[in-house]
Specification:
heterotetramer, A: about 325 residues, alpha/beta, two-stranded antiparallel sheet, 9 helices, B: about 350 residues, seven-stranded mixed β-sheet, five-stranded mixed β-sheet, 14 strands, globular, binds thiamine diphosphate, binds magnesium ion
Chain lengths: ~325, ~350, ~325, ~350
């Protein structure tokens, strides 16, 4: 395993002169993800902001360090939506181009909770895989940057807006890899709400049964779902023992600590078992002004001018320290 | 000026359930998006959060119904028929239980993309015995459908509308089972529409009327059973043909139901089915998708022109002039433009 | 809770003079279940025999002792199939009549794996709830005693031939009970193959979330499914920790020991949690001649006259000692 | 004397897969009942046991197909479309992946009762974009369908037959996409059948021919797409009407597809749809259920009599005399009688 991380990363978007240790890069990327999604939240009067706040470090760690991804093969500014698979010339999974080439030398990064799309798009921008102006397309008619990402959306490879289906598909991809003798890992980014779907457990059970250890799952355990706290809506704890019981290896980490996430991925022995990193996170991370609204933060719209001003100040501060 | 009713289902459900203690609401973790927050606040002891586990929710509802409760399941339509189809069939429809499925985001009417677009719900569900299928077309439909459910002991699927809903039909002319509403009369062509397409068709038929094309227009709200004599009669006297228009695939839904009636009774025709033509769709705003898939007002005009071999030179402005002013113009962008985000 | 067991039991089918302690009754009932299913297996040249062999003591314990069931309300010999629910006059769940009246004084017994039907029918006969000649109807055209039971079939209440749906329905029934203030418990009999279905875990999760402790699940862990051993086909172990992780209380017992099953049901504290009794069983129990065919015993047909003779001898022996 | 082919799929799959290393088989814990034990024994490294977890199986297959493998899923039909409909749609059909769904126990042809009867699979699946739907009617269909799949890059659902399958069509006349087979010619009535109903109809049309009724009979094996000119032409020249006959609900399947064609093209008619009439069924032997639900040979005779207003006084014996002797008489009870148990 390449413990030195990803040699292919495009980090040119980071100003020279800054520290270029990967954790610093990742932290900067996380800040940029937050800022860009916050700006969209202000510009569009509402967005899946809390998901960016909770997952920024997870995505940044995967893109910066843990997932071996080659340089993007996608255009800096994605073209308009060209059709659904099956229509002339349209193939499945086209959004994967932004995660670079596929093959034995590379890992795969699969996004499961499709409403995290805006955070993924921001991660692509902040890792130099997509131009900043591409975000202007977000959720506009005819754009591939859909609000709920699908497999044509940049950074996506699967159509997972109906939750809980990515892990099974990852299993199929990982099994195909092993049949072909390819050593790439398959990273799956999931939300904690998805742990309520029975299919998630069918998938883990099957990964365990086939001793597939090339699948690494990172779960954003932000403790909330649409209606509120998971503990109130439908309890999922103790997640660790659920995962262990179903054949996985589970590690809980502070989901805002990039080195902790990275270390858990790199150092946890999990031979013959899928690895599940439970990234416990705060859905208001970096924006204390939102903390009072927890756990009802599934979709954030600022309520008045005062809130908007406060938020703008946060964004500007992040831009300065970017 | 047509009335716009704000969240007709939300308040109606609460009022209607007041003296019906057996009515329960089950939520699939989309309480705010399916207008049941008020129910939850009003009758917390009759509200059950089922999380994001639709298979369990469907079978669980079957268990409740076996004991005499009347569970109203609220989630997006796709999560009522795709994820839990086997449970819907075996735990609810085979035993013919009093379970009500309230499915939101019909057809292309969602900001959520392909995974959230219930474009084939009617087609899938018409193939399920014991299930009654109702589709809401206006605020009156929504406000009166709960009363209608009481006439139907078996399971019911309601293709629901949310948010601000136009009132197209008088508030006191309640929805009736297997009974279409006459929207307009005429004998050049027959038009049968359902759901949102009814309001889409109205300006088109009005503008065409000014050009001398008289269209008999029915609004259908019961997709199953489908044996309304009014529909049959309308098809039979169909002049140059019958058009169906639905926010759904052309296969399996309204268009197919009409085709079956026409073929079995050997009446009317030819049939022109407007709807999504056997394809999945991308995520975008509703008006954009309606246009792209050819199920908006102008598409209807074009279809009529093709059938009649004429060109009426109707513009978007002509249609807008006819449009039942459902939304105050200033709010159109606010409501439907994709620029304005809504939580799902 | 009525620790004295079921006062309503009809045990008249047992010869007088025999020991009438409930464990002895239960053991006799188990023997009779095995014998009757074996006779059908011979008479029909094939049957779900191994399921009767593995589950006989579980069903016998439930019918004899653990489940509070009133006397059957069904006819001794069930009439012909009268129609599916929704057709004139046909209501759901009619097979439940054989388990007696419903209400606060009674428990419910729900059968999940519908191919165990023949064992259930035999249990009804051996507990005096159905006449022996009713079994002649088994799997004949127009009979309610279908091979794969459905809710009109004697002893059934749900239509569960598509596996994994009963537990959720039991949850709904139990929740309804508690809404109505009824104290009856809901017993669910399951097979181990059903533990592979994601819905099973959605159901357990929900029971745990709502702290429903009136549901008691007895699983026939015979270690096999259609294709062979569960460990080979799709591993489900460690079942105990899976169940604990999902909010249940799990107890493993020897599934052929009626007192162990009964004790586990009666004595295991499980306040606020569903109780799951994992009954580890032997699918060739009582018929060593079948042991060599394990774990491929999902449907048993004797292969030649010698086997049939051997089997007939076993049946006769059981009849004598019955 | 018509040939009876023993397990045509089993051996065919093994032979066909020999030089196609990308072909994988996924089993839903029904290996012995879906004729893939031989595949498992022959290519153990290409056989994958997925246990009883159909949702995972469908999505997993999507993952394999994305990587260039061609998974053939084998289980009972109900467990391919009811339990995992969402996964079938979102993980397989939306991305238009090369996944093959081989579904057993079509319609009422199962000892398993309502939970095992795929009586609405075609109806549900015709409403799914990108999916091709094939139904097997004889041994030649079964033996040649794997070759046909290679012409279709997207997902395919095959309604499969197992066990001893009659050969109705010459072994060298392979199944073709969207191409019906002419079983018999005539101009009094048109008859379109699929699956088992084709062999059910053959003795009936033969006996009716002796009474002077000339029926044009087509066997359809592609339910989607459904645009075969031969079907259209047959419907158009339909004499006194068109009969469809299918081992499926009358809604959503062959009958609806024909109705759509008739209504849109305004051809032929009236249409008489034979099939299960919008109800679930009990568990019993196949012949018993076919008779009870009116889709056996005698039911077809009765339907023709009703249409023509005649009584041909045909008896079961008359039909039996015509019957393609598919099963050696001595084996009939063995094979189909409910007295003889089969493992599912
Ligand atoms: C199968 C399925 N059911 C329901 C939904 C609707 N839905 C969208 S987001 C969401 C909440 C899921 O929880 P999580 O992803 O943890 O939400 P967050 O932390 O972002 O609030 C739900 C129920 C869905 N997308 N898929
Ligand atoms: C949802 C579903 N999938 C598949 C089947 C087909 N099936 C019938 S029995 C069986 C084996 C299930 O395991 P188990 O009940 O433990 O079997 P046993 O111990 O009796 O061999 C399967 C897969 C089914 N009935 N339901
Ligand atoms: Mg969450
Ligand atoms: Mg078992």
């Amino acid at each position: 395993m390449d413990t030195e991380g990803n040699g292919h990363r495009a980090v040119t978007s980071f100003p020279p002169g800054r520290s270029n240790t990967w954790p610093d890069q990742a932290r900067r990327m996380a800040r940029e993800i937050r800022r860009r999604v916050l700006e969209l939240t202000l510009g569009r009067d509402g967005c899946y902001l809390s998901q960016a706040l909770s997952s920024a470090e997870i995505l940044a760690t995967l893109y910066t360090r843990s997932a071996r991804l080659g340089p993007s093969l996608g255009p800096a500014v994605p073209p308009a939506f060209s059709g659904v698979p099956g229509q002339a010339g349209v193939r499945h999974g086209q959004g994967a181009a932004f995660n670079g080439p596929q093959g034995s030398d590379y890992d795969r990064l699969l996004i499961s909770p499709a409403h995290y799309a805006v955070a993924v798009y921001a991660a692509l921008v902040s890792s130099g895989r997509m131009a900043p102006e591409a975000l202007d397309q977000f959720n506009t008619d005819g754009s591939q940057l859909e609000m709920i990402g699908a497999e044509h959306s940049p950074g996506f490879e699967l159509t997972t807006g109906s939750f809980g289906q990515a892990l099974s598909q990852a299993g199929g991809i990982a099994m195909a890899n092993s049949l072909r003798g390819s050593s790439g890992r398959v990273f799956v980014f999931m939300s904690d709400g998805e742990l309520e779907e029975g299919q998630t457990w069918e998938a883990l059970q099957c990964l365990g049964h086939y001793r597939i250890d090339s699948v690494v799952v990172c779960v954003d355990v932000n403790g909330m779902q649409y209606d509120g706290a998971t503990s109130e809506v439908m309890n999922i704890e103790p997640i660790e023992s659920r995962i262990t019981g179903f054949g996985g290896i589970a590690v809980s980490v502070d989901g805002h600590d990039v080195t902790a996430i990275e270390r858990a991925i790199r150092q946890t022995p999990h031979e013959g078992r899928p690895l599940v990193i439970l990234c416990y996170t705060d859905s208001a991370r970096g924006m204390p002004m939102l903390a009072a609204r927890k756990p009802k933060l599934h979709f954030v719209r600022f309520r008045n001018d005062r809130e908007r001003e406060q938020a703008r100040a946060v964004a500007e501060n992040w831009a300065r320290t970017g | 000026m047509i009335e716009l009713v704000h969240k007709p289902h939300e308040g109606n459900l609460v009022a209607w359930a007041r003296n019906r203690p057996d009515v329960l609401v089950l939520s699939g973790d989309l309480t705010g998006s399916t207008e049941i927050q008020l129910f939850k606040d009003t009758y917390p002891e009759r509200f059950f959060s089922m999380g994001m586990a639709e298979q369990n929710m469907l079978s669980w509802a079957g268990g409740l119904a076996r004991e005499g409760f009347v569970p109203f399941l609220h989630t997006f339509a796709v999560f009522l028929y795709r994820r839990p189809l086997d449970q819907l069939e075996m735990s609810v429809c085979y035993p013919n239980l009093t379970v009500r499925l309230v499915g939101f985001l019909p057809g292309l009417n969602t900001p959520g993309g392909v995974t959230h677009q219930a474009i084939n719900d009617i087609g899938v569900l018409r193939a399920i015995p014991n299930l009654t299928i109702l589709e809401m077309g206006d605020a009156t439909d929504v406000e009166t459908v709960l009363d209608l459910t009481e006439e139907i002991p078996g399971p019911i699927y309601v293709r629901m509308l949310r948010g601000d809903v136009a009132r197209l039909f008088p508030a006191n002319e309640r929805i009736r089972l297997n009974s279409a509403r006459v929207v307009r009369d005429g004998d050049d062509l027959s038009l049968v529409t359902s759901g949102h397409c009814t309001s889409e068709a109205m300006p088109a038929t009005a503008a065409l009327a000014r050009r001398g094309v008289a269209i008999r227009h029915l609004h259908v709200s019961t997709l199953k059973p489908f044996s309304d004599p009014l529909v049959e009669e309308t098809i039979a006297v169909s002049g140059r043909g019958v058009i169906t228009m639905e926010n759904h695939l052309v296969t399996g839904g309204l268009g197919s139901a009409v085709a079956e009636m026409m073929a079995e009774k050997r009446i009317g025709g030819p049939l022109f089915r407007m709807g999504i033509r056997d394809t999945y769709a991308q995520g975008a705003s509703f008006p954009y998708l309606l246009r792209k898939h050819g199920i908006d007002a102008m598409a209807l005009v074009n279809k009529v022109e093709t059938i009649l071999g004429e060109n009426f030179r109707l513009t978007e402005d002509d249609l807008r002039a006819e449009a039942v002013p459902v939304y105050p113009p200033s709010q159109v962008d606010e409501r439907q433009g994709s620029e304005r985000l809504e939580a799902l």
